[in-house]
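Students often ask what a holo structure prediction actually looks like on paper. The answer is less mysterious than it sounds. You provide the chain, you provide the ligand, and the output is a string of discrete structure tokens encoding the 3D arrangement of the protein together with protoporphyrin IX containing FE.
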Amino acid sequence: MAAVFSVFLTSLFVTVPCVIRLLYCLLWVPWRLQRRFRLQGIKGPPRRLLSGNAAEFRAMLEGAQSSPPLASFHHAGVLSRVVPHYHEWSARHGRPFVYWFGPRARLVVSDHDVVATVMTDSTEAFDKSGFGGGNPLARQLFGQGLPGLSGDKWARHRRVVAPAFNMERVKAWIPEIAAITSSMLDTWEVQGESRHTEFEVDVYQGFHTLSAYVISHVAFGSSYEEGNRIFELQQEQGKLVALAMRTVYIPGFRFVPTNKNRRRQSLNLELQNLLRKLIEINGRKCEDAKNLLGLMLSASKALSKFKMDIEEIIEECKVFYFGGKETTAHLLTWATLLLASNREWQDKARDEVHRVCGKFEHPNAENLSNLKIVDMVLKETLRLYPPVVAVNRTATRDIKLGKLDIPAGTQLEFPIIDIHRDTGVWGADADEFNPWRFADGHRRYHLGAYLPFGMGPSVCVGKNLSMVEAKVALAMILQRFTFVVSPSYVHAPILMMNTRPQYGAQILACKI
Ligand code: HEM
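The corresponding structure tokens follow.
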């Protein structure tokens, strides 16, 4: 009897504190935070007890993706398809508004001053929320690399990796980028048979292959073929991560042997093995070339505080294979579609390319910066169709920002795609494609009002590569082809990690 009683007492001692802690985290903390937001007049959709607004969030995204495409290549309805939750909740509850992912508050803020203050903060009052908002299932894609790191580890990796993409290095890759683009355009030309014959190309697929070739060559000194399986695995991993990010993560769930979890494990394992092999084969060559992989390998041998071990290098490789390919491909896709639908800007940009680079010569390091109109077109594309739709930071302590009183633990969400369409900054025609906004000497916009590549210490490492690659490719397409949007294109942008066209991006091109 005494033994039974002592077992009972022990289990009571173990379970009661656990239950109290659970009640504290799941009920008391959210209730207290919600009250604090309410006192400031910040509203949001009604929160469900355990899941918050996760179910509605998921339903809205799925609903948007199965809704009919937009009537024409019009940009006003884009938010309701890509980020329906921002669109609907900000209309209903105003800005800022708060929604809940499980017990976690997500405060969506579009105010430029707050955006700029938080993103450029160096006091450690805000932490990167980690890729996927800390969901371990999302971290598999590249959560252990730069985007998912913070503190000393982030600083150490950033210090090693950033020099691989400085402008001088990127400019040196222009001939390779031009050669890769040229072979892609040769395949288009074969389809065109003769001058003045229109032919259809799906540029979405083409640009993915182009940017995969570029990142394989310039960062890893490898061929597209070597990286091909890595891209395939990451493609599948990306889809699984996008699904995981729509649900509240229950601690320990990733160890439950569901079909998806098993697939996640095997994808990750194969990816790790492939990258390990790639490093073994190409390591030496890369160290000599001082490209991304080379710089990381040199750092692994250095006896300095910037040393990276091989597991860390593998994690960074995942980031650059994925980030290097996806985002630039989406930028090029939208820029081409926008020019295809706007003959006036297409002609202006082509005239400039002919004037600056000639009709047949590839763009080079000397003349690329003179392509001002192409640059304006790309910047306007990034405003209307930013591949990364939002950035997040978590408040590490209670903090006041202007009128906002932000409790520790709140995840601040900055909806780039919404900020980029603020009529207060961009004018009544914020939903229109108008590259003049980015002309030299044109009205300057506030620092926190335009951030396709983020800003502050964590600003995108690949920004230079992306812009140079997109400029070279777009200039060469303009040199060789005129193009319009194909009647088979349907305008249905969606969010699948990045903003992308749901059914491809078909244009009708014609050789010049
Ligand atoms: C159009 C193309 C691109 C866009 C729109 C874009 C967007 C972004 C944004 C918004 C961030 C900031 C995230 C944050 O602060 O939380 C970021 C970070 C990052 N991007 Fe990009 N990116 C692009 C291309 C690339 C490319 C080509 C690479 C690799 C070669 C790359 C690698 C990275 C990395 C490593 C980070 C994390 C930086 C850090 O945390 O220190 N990106 N990117």
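The radius of gyration is 24 Å.
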